[in-house]
Amino acid sequence: MDSSLSMPDPLALWLGTHAWQIFLAALPLLALVVGALAVAWRHASRPIREAEEPDLRWLIAALLLGFGVVVAAGAAFAEIADALGDGHVLGHWDDSFSAAVATQTPPAVHKTFAVLTRFADPLPMVILGFVVAVLLWRKRHRVYAAGWVMALGGNALLNHSLKLIFERARPVHESGIVAATGYSFPSGHSSGAVVAYGMLAFLACRLLPPAWHIPAVVAAALLSVTAACSRVFVLVHFPSDVLAGMLSGSAWLIVCILAVTAARHHGRVRAGRAARAADRR
């Protein structure tokens, strides 16, 4: 083993020691950046008509294809990582960072993140998923309801599949701040928060008045990042677990948004063809 790996990484130690201050300083910057991007997107995008009949078969096919692509990419990444070595360098950095967070973060900060991490716990996510799905279905937004359910359910299956591919053990700490079982990489809380709150922001931008769009996108970004980062502060995930969870969740979120949009577009095209055929008759 490289002798440098026997000593803590200095940069990781410094970042871990000041992690909670860096997090607090980064949140306002994140809000500004996401808000600016949302404003730019709002001015650049065209409004979408909501009267078309969606094609659910197209939605399911697109989601299945996207799911396969994300899993295949994860498996390929695992093979490459295995070919390059057993991750000693990354593991060393993760260990140094996590040890600094565990010993240098004030207890009050740990307790605060133990509350914030509940925003992405399985039970709140299930309740949120059920409530939003029922509301969308009762408002006759059937394709959005289907896309929402498949986004949350698909992410749970995707994260479980990726954990089985990588089989990484969780950090070992005796603090007992939050209990967690199963494999560590990627973080399910991180990917779940990105998908759930990202889809909520997407639905808000499609179904609510324009005044709600930018606040919804900014709130989704802040909630997602906070829930993801909390997993490091409650000592149940390494930083790389959280980053990987956010990346896999973002990839699946993009797949779901594109699939829902394509299904609506395909339904609109199909309805237009049927209307033209009726006119000719």
Helix/strand layout:
Elements: H1 10-17, H2 19-44, H3 56-84, H4 88-104, H5 107-116, H6 122-138, H7 142-166, H8 188-207, H9 213-233, H10 239-280
Provide structural commentary:
The protein is mainly alpha-helical. It contains ten helices and no strands. The protein has helices spanning 10-17, 19-44, 56-84, 88-104, 107-116, 122-138, 142-166, 188-207, 213-233, 239-280. The longest helix is centred in the C-terminal third of the chain and has 42 residues, at 239-280. The chain is globular. It starts with 9 loop residues before the first helix and ends with a helix. Residues 44-52 and 271-279 have low confidence and may be disordered.
Which key features would you list for this structure?
281 residues, mainly alpha, 10 helices, 77% helix, globular, disordered C terminus
- Helix count from the secondary structure assignment: 10
* Fraction in beta strands: under 5%
Helicity level: over 70%
The secondary-structure class comes to: mainly alpha
Distance between the termini: 78 Å
Oligomer: single chain
Instruction: Return the string of H and E elements.
Output: HHHHHHHHHH
What does the radius of gyration come to? Answer: 21 Å
| Strand tally | 0
Mass-distribution shape: globular
Runs with pLDDT <50, length 5+?
Answer: 44-52, 271-279
Q: How would you state the average pLDDT, rounded? A: 78
Biggest sheet, in brief?
none
